[in-house]
Design brief:
- With 163 residues, this protein is α+β, with helices and mostly antiparallel strands.
- It has one domain: Aminopeptidase.
- Helix content is 36%, strand content 22%.
- The protein is built from 5 helices and 5 strands; from the N terminus they run βααβββαβαα.
- Pfam families: Acetyltransf_1 (PF00583).
């Protein structure tokens, strides 16, 4: 069963986030808490959304996503931040069903894209996404500001405003 996440799913989602981070060799980077996820997903004006898949009443996978906007298309899209299914539950079609649910939401709402990033060494995921019809955007390189770089750049902008 695939459904939108509910507040009671937050512990399971965080567990799966941590499992994904461990698989991606980055568990040490996870700072999110249950409170963080609960506020982001279920606060007064949520900006991030999640779908979960259940097996025998237990959350065994999730897709966490948010809206983007394409100026070229003039329409919103979905950015898939994380898609993960517990390794013991793989091969049952849950991952594809989660991805298909996002495609259904995008289609129903008139969104122009569903996109995400995948680590270049993650061959199983790359093959999974290709089999679903996704194609890499090789001409684009992802850039990221994080940590101290954000306030440092913000200070430069404030200091460099013309007269």
């Amino acid at each position: 069963m695939i459904r939108f996440a509910a507040p009671g799913d937050v512990p399971a989602i965080l567990r799966l986030v941590r499992d994904l981070a461990e698989y991606e060799r980055a568990l040490h980077e996870v700072r999110a808490t249950e409170e963080d996820l609960r506020a982001a997903l279920f606060g007064p004006e949520p900006k991030v959304f999640a779908n979960v898949v259940e097996h025998d009443g237990e959350v065994v996978g999730f897709a966490l996503w948010f809206l983007t906007f394409s100026t070229w298309l003039g329409r919103h899209g979905i950015y898939l931040e994380d898609l993960y299914v517990d390794p013991a539950m793989r091969g049952k079609g849950y991952g594809k069903a989660l991805l298909a649910e996002l495609a259904r939401i995008a289609d129903e709402r008139g969104y122009g894209r569903v996109e995400w990033s995948v680590l270049d060494w993650n061959t199983p995921s790359i093959e999974f996404y290709r089999a679903a019809g996704a194609r890499p955007q090789d001409e684009w390189t992802v850039y990221r500001l994080t940590g101290d770089a954000i306030p440092a750049l913000a200070r430069e902008r404030s200091a460099e405003l013309p007269g």
